[in-house]
Design brief:
9 helices, 3 strands, 57% helix
Length: 183
C-alpha cells in the first residue's frame, strides 16, 4: 500500500470538510505528521487532482477582505476510493533519522556538541510526548486514533528512557582526530 498525500487527503476528508490550510495543519500538528510530511506544493495539487476525478467536492466561500476560502469535502466516490485504499496490505515500516546518523559517527563528534545534540533531542522527544499525553487540538473519538496515540506515548517514553540510561555509551568516548587534521 502506498500511503501518499492523495490517500491521506482522502482520509482526512473522510472525517469532515476542510480547507487546504487545515489539511496542512493536520500534517504539522495532528497525528498525520507521524506518517508523512507534505508541503502546500504537494497538498494543493493532490486536492486538485482529487477534485478533477470527482473524488472530492469543492465549495468556494467568499470572505470579506480576504481571498476566497476553498473548502474540500469527500464525495461518495471519494469515500469508496478511500475505503478501497484501506484494503491493501501496508508496506514495511521505515524509520529515518538524521539524529541516529550523527550518532553512528559519535566518535567523531566533540563531547560538548554530542551532549548538546542528545540534550536537544531529549527535549524534542519530551515535548512530543507531552503533546500526545495532553493534546491541544481536539481529536475525533476514534479507537484507531487512541491506539496510535498510545503507541506514540509508549514509543517516546521508551526512547527517552533508553537515551537517558545509555547516553554514557556515547559520551564516554573521546572524539577522534579527523584524518585530514593529522596530516
Amino acid at each position: 500500500m502506498a500511503i501518499d498525500v492523495r490517500t491521506i487527503c482522502l482520509g482526512l476528508l473522510s472525517r469532515g470538510s476542510a480547507t487546504g490550510y487545515e489539511i496542512k495543519k493536520s500534517f504539522e500538528e495532528g497525528p498525520i505528521g507521524y506518517f508523512l510530511e507534505a508541503s502546500f506544493g504537494a497538498i494543493y495539487p493532490a486536492l486538485g487532482r482529487l477534485t478533477e476525478e470527482g473524488l472530492v467536492g469543492l465549495k468556494v466561500e467568499q470572505q470579506d477582505g480576504k481571498p476566497d476560502r476553498k473548502v474540500y469535502s469527500l464525495t461518495a466516490r471519494g469515500h469508496a476510493a478511500f475505503e478501497e485504499s484501506l484494503r491493501v496490505d501496508p508496506g514495511p515500516d521505515r524509520f529515518r533519522s538524521e539524529f541516529l546518523f550523527l550518532l553512528l559517527f559519535a566518535d567523531h563528534i566533540p563531547k560538548d556538541h554530542l551532549r548538546h545534540l542528545i540534550d536537544e533531542r531529549l527535549a524534542d522527544y519530551r515535548c512530543k510526548l507531552r503533546l500526545l499525553e495532553e493534546p491541544s487540538i481536539p481529536m475525533p473519538n476514534s479507537p484507531g486514533l487512541e491506539f496510535i496515540r498510545g503507541q506514540g506515548i509508549a514509543f517516546y517514553r521508551a526512547i527517552i528512557d533508553y537515551i537517558e540510561h545509555n547516553r554514557h555509551l556515547l559520551e564516554a568516548q573521546d572524539a577522534r582526530v579527523p584524518a585530514h587534521a593529522a596530516e
